[in-house]
Design goal:
Radius of gyration: 32 Å
Largest sheet: 5 strands, mixed
Helix content: 25-40%
Strand order of the largest sheet: 2-1-10-5-6
Number of helices: 6
Structural class: alpha+beta
Order of helices and strands: HEEHEEHEEHEEEEHH
Distance between the termini: 84 Å
Number of strands: 10
Length: 213
């Protein structure tokens, strides 16, 4: 083959190589394009289902957690329920305290929320816990049996008044724990009552790792 015939042949080979290279490059780009388009749509669908809870107004208490009937309480709504009175003595940062409180048994309020305790477990309610949150993200935790008159003699109250003086509506109720000798669980300006069980924590990853010891 002489020089005149060799050059056109080489040019044809080069064009063929370029065409094949271009076809090879387009395949990964097209494969990657489909997931890129579908991902934002999936994300938008999942975020649309998670609506934030409405902000609480001053004095409101949200009852939430593993309950069938979550609700929002106020001092006005609590005053409309049957009242109980307790005399308590405890120590606090301000020294010894002695007061008479009026209010509603906490157990009655939470029972109305219908906690989802496992009825297939013997005394399934004994797995229950209640977290009470107040001003400044102050929080105290109770076992359900501490609140249930079927198990405990004490009666924890959602107090609406102290020594005959009603609490201000904007401050909300105060948790009163007659069996406590210190006032740490007397949660003031209560804003949330969360009801749940310890099962997820005990039987989850933490429980599995602890079982090996």
């Amino acid at each position: 083959m002489n020089r005149r015939t060799l050059l056109p042949a080489l040019a044809g080979v080069a064009v063929a190589v370029l065409v094949l290279a271009g076809c090879g490059d387009s395949t990964p780009a097209e494969a990657g394009a489909a997931p890129a388009k579908s991902s934002p749509a999936a994300g938008a669908g999942s975020s649309a289902t998670a609506a934030p809870a409405p902000a609480l107004k001053p004095g409101e208490v949200r009852v939430t957690g593993q309950v069938d009937k979550p609700s929002t309480l106020t001092l006005a709504s609590l005053r409309g329920l049957p009242q109980t009175s307790v005399e308590v003595e405890y120590t606090s940062a301000k020294g010894p305290q002695k007061h008479t409180y009026q209010g509603v048994p906490l157990h009655d309020v939470l029972k109305d929320a219908q906690p989802r305790f496992d009825a297939s477990k013997k005394n399934g309610q004994l797995r229950g816990i209640v977290a009470a949150t107040g001003a400044g993200d102050y929080r105290a935790v109770f076992a359900w049996a501490e609140l249930d008159p079927g198990f405990a003699k004490s009666q924890v109250l959602l107090a609406v008044a102290e020594d005959g003086k009603p609490f201000d509506d904007a401050a909300g109720p105060r948790l009163v724990v007659p069996q406590d000798t210190k006032g740490g669980r007397y949660v003031s300006e209560l804003n949330q009552l969360w009801v749940g069980t310890v099962d997820a924590t005990v039987d989850g990853a933490g429980g599995a790792s602890g079982a090996g010891h």
